[in-house]
Amino acid sequence: MLRITASALALVLSAILALAAAPNPAPGGAYKIDPSHSSFNWSFNHSGLSHYTARFTKVDARLDWKPEKPETSTLSVTIDPLSVRTDYPWPEKVDFDAEIGGEETFLAAKPIIFVSKAIRVTGEKTGVVEGLLTFRGETHPTTLDVIFNGSMAEHPMMGVPKIGFSATGWIRRSEWGLDFAIPELGDVVTFSIEAQMVPADYSFE
């Protein structure tokens, strides 16, 4: 009996210490992306041999965060298509990033915009964001599967509240009129997002 009691006390003590060490959550309010700690990668099947992967480096995300009722939060994202980075190995021969971002047969230099329309909480730290995605001047619905990684009232290095999310999703690019080289280049584009967010009035300068 003494052994069971000691074990139970140890578990309670561990829980108390864990709670004491855990940071206070970030408050609700307006947040924006922290570009130095975030990423937006996308990929598609290339000739059945690999999943070609690239990224965007200029992503502006805005979140009206409601921690007590996350489903009432709202999200908007704007991506500069000219910020695409493919790491093409011979830039002195071809400006491949400029072609992908700017040519009419690809992203056509038009902003990529996502606006949430509904958020569904599916678990303690998971949810689905339904919204409208616009690129190449066309708008269609799409969804994001989101993991809430956590938040803190004061980041130990930056000294401000921060919120962290991971998200994945996919689209059929042909639905937006981007049907170049299908099926040699896959129609389905998957994307992976890692985002840390700071208060909207925070200055990175």
Automatic annotation (TrEMBL):
Pfam families referenced in this protein's UniProt entry, alphabetically: YceI
Signal peptide residues on this chain, from the entry's feature table: 1-20
InterPro entries in the cross-refs: Lipid/polyisoprenoid-bd_YceI (IPR007372), TTHA0802/YceI-like_sf (IPR036761)
Record domain Lipid/polyisoprenoid-binding YceI-like: where: 30-198
Keywords: Signal
Protein name in UniProt: Polyisoprenoid-binding protein
Organism this protein belongs to: Ensifer oleiphilus
